[in-house]
Design a protein that fits this description.
The chain has seven helices and ten strands. By secondary structure, it is of the alpha/beta class. Helix 3 packs parallel to helix 5, helix 4 packs across helix 5 (148-160) and helix 5 (148-160) runs parallel beside helix 6.
Amino acid sequence: MSNVIFNCLNISKTYTDGNSAVEVLKGINFTINRGDLIAIVGPSGSGKSTLLHLLGGLDKPTEGQISIQGVDWQTLNEKKRCKLRNQNLGFIYQFHHLLPEFSAMENVAMPLLLRQTSTASAENLSMSILEKVGLSNRATHKPSQLSGGERQRVAIARALVHQPLCVLADEPTGNLDNATAAKVFELMLDLNKQFNTALIIVTHDQQLAARMDRTFTIQDGVLS
């Protein structure tokens, strides 16, 4: 398996609104390798989340090429994009996006069930990762029965249960108080070391960004 997860070549993204066009990203180039810890910072509206969506194959660049494990996202139909995304990526957002009618364990198992893993195996793997995030005793609880920090830890477990090559995280501690945010971030770093999973975090928190291996800044559509 190649050590390179993402290779981005001359990525640009332009949105059109009526007769006007807004170039959000301009000529971006970078490579992400296994185990990398990357922070992406910049002003609100600078294109940080747009870049994450492009990396995750959730949107397409206007120009340029994004390859994941050597495969160009744009050469794939939606079914193949979904399969590649589910095999290689995990996602964490500012809001946990847990399904309210399901327990913590059932939420964590979803990516595995989408890969047609047997129910028994999915439950065993879900319990294992919930134990790693300190929530095995909350496995049967629904999101409404969990604290904000617990819900975000479940979301992290869900993102990592299938041991993806990379986790894309958009302000993952943005809705948490400082103490809980610090604990959640430490957990993400620990899991990065355990699984050698690359972690790309969009954040406004400069202290958090300073603890990553590399920090990219997006300003006026340009990555530096």
